[in-house]
Design goal:
Elements lengths: L1 E6 L2 E7 L5 H17 L4 H22 L2 E5 L16 H14 L3 E3 L6 H10 L3 E3 L1 H12 L3 H15 L31 H31 L4 E6 L5 H9 L16 E6 L5 E6 L9 H6 L1 H9 L2 E7 L5 H14 L7 E6 L6 H8 L5 E2 L8 H11 L5 E9 L3 H10 L1 E8 L2 E9 H6 L4 E2 L7 H13 L1
Parallel strand pairs: 2-4, 4-5, 6-8, 6-9, 9-10, 10-11
Antiparallel strand pairs: 1-2, 1-3, 7-8, 12-14, 12-15, 13-14
């Protein structure tokens, strides 16, 4: 795939190369056989649609890295070439396109082995970048906090270490181009020993971040506040939905991986129950394992959440495939069994005819984070899914002199009924168990409430007659 990259003060022509690879082809062949057995008349169209979705996603990754696409090259092979992935004939073709377009980067929609990367750079008159490097570059571009920079650099160094030997053009330094952008835009020492030392140092820093998060979490657990994490495919509208629920005003973008650093906001549900909502990094198909490992500290919010809101782009033609990709990453994080609410977002982009069918689905709630529609149904489902700090109904007998107790119950719970007798206030309250438990000494039995026992007695006499 050939692209023109616009990066700051300079314009760089970038060529994006063929997709392929034996493992990828094997997966495609298996999926094609399964589809053919189920619907033999449609299997060609299914494979074509999946291919187009993959290429469209690759184009969006390229644009998110700051490039403008000029042309594309695609190759299909029965098996990958061990030396160059695509074979000598295709390398010659790619080299000719590079020369004719004056490109300075070739990016493959596939991971390259160290030897393949080395051989391609020797044959092509420009730098070579694979899919993992491209995604790492986008992450580096969007990192804002010190934690984000640390985790991106850790992933970059762990990717770089086995590729040092004979790596020429692209490892000379980290700069401003695709595949070379890094935290602080500084040069990387290519000596293995020093890079390992840097990796160990960053891991120590990330571990400090994890300890800090653990301490903060322990303080939160002293007063039970459930955490709900937004997860989903990149660009599914998680940040827009997060803003709709919290009014936090976090950055919303149509670019992939716009949210890198986690966001936590407390919100109060209609039942007066407080929860913490966490916005997390989006997933993508074939998410590099180094990223999942390096961003473990960030993804701990997913691991400790009581409920996951799986935000899906209802307008995407790849709706079901993206769900499978997200579930694969959740399985890798060992959170696949957590309670989950499927949220079909971007209802405003769905044609009216299709929206009716989506709204009737039992496996998802149709909403629009941008327009704010469907929020009542989503919040009701969230209330029902939360088990930590459950809602309870109790009666309280509070002296009128204890006005602060009454005010606290009114602020944190719903008062269903109120009665007065002398200097006492009787309250029937529905609220979080943690809040009601604080005032257990004021709790009373319903039979002690004025008028309650008398009515029950009369009702019993009538029943006996």
């Amino acid at each position: 795939m050939v692209c023109l990259e616009i990066t700051g003060r300079s314009a760089r022509k970038t060529m994006f190369g063929p997709r392929g690879g034996q493992a990828s082809l094997a997966r495609q062949a298996a999926a094609l056989r399964a589809a053919e057995e189920e619907h033999p008349e449609n299997h060609g169209a299914i494979a074509h649609d999946d291919f187009e979705e993959e290429i469209a996603e690759f184009r969006e990754l390229v644009r998110s890295a700051g490039a403008e696409i000029a042309a594309e090259i695609v190759q299909r092979r029965d098996r990958a070439d061990a030396a160059t992935l695509v074979g000598p004939g295709k390398v010659t073709e790619v080299s000719a396109v590079v020369e004719s377009t004056d490109a300075d980067v070739v990016i493959f929609n596939h991971d390259l082995s160290p030897s393949q990367l080395r051989n391609l750079e020797r044959e092509l008159p420009c730098r070579v970048v694979d899919r993992t490097q491209l995604i790492l570059d986008i992450f580096a571009k969007h990192a804002r906090t010190r934690e984000g920079h640390l985790q991106v650099e850790l992933a970059q160094l762990e990717y770089l270490l086995p590729r040092l030997a004979g790596h020429g053009k692209s490892m000379s330094q980290l700069g401003g181009g695709i595949g070379t952008r890094g935290p602080g835009e500084t040069k990387l020492e290519t000596d293995r020993r020093r890079i390992r030392g840097r990796i160990d140092h960053i891991k120590e820093q990330v571990e400090k971040v994890r300890r800090t998060r653990r301490q903060q979490r322990q303080r939160r657990e002293a007063v039970p506040v459930p955490t709900v994490a937004l997860v989903g495919y990149t660009n599914a509208g998680k940040s827009t939905l997060f803003n709709a629920l919290t009014k936090a005003g976090v950055v919303e973008s149509s670019r992939m991986f716009a949210t890198l650093d986690p966001k936590l906001r407390a919100i109060t549900l209609p039942s007066r129950r407080r929860i913490l909502l966490a916005d997390t990094v989006g997933f993508v198909r074939q998410l590099p394992h180094t990223l999942v490992t390096s961003f473990r500290a960030t993804l701990e919010e997913v691991e400790t959440a009581e409920v996951l809101l799986h935000v899906r782009d209802a307008s995407s033609p790849a709706l079901e495939r993206q769900k499978a990709d997200v579930e694969a990453v959740l399985g890798e994080l060992e959170v696949g069994e957590k309670p989950r609410i499927e949220v079909l977002n971007k209802a405003d982009l769905v044609p009216a005819g299709e929206a009716v069918g989506l709204a009737e689905r039992e496996d998802g709630i149709l909403v629009s984070g941008l327009k704010g529609t469907g929020m009542d149904a989503l919040i009701a489902a969230l209330e029902a899914a939360l088990k930590l700090d459950p809602m309870e109904q109790r009666w309280f007998r509070v002296p009128q002199s204890e006005g602060q107790i009454v005010a606290a119950l009114e602020a944190g719970a719903s008062v269903n009924e109120r009665k007065y007798e002398g200097n006492l206030i009787y309250l029937e309250v529905t609220g979080p168990a943690s809040l009601l438990g604080r005032y257990a000494k004021f709790q009373t039995d319903e039979k002690a409430v004025p008028g309650k026992a008398a009515r029950k007695t009369r009702a019993t006499k009538v029943a006996r007659k």
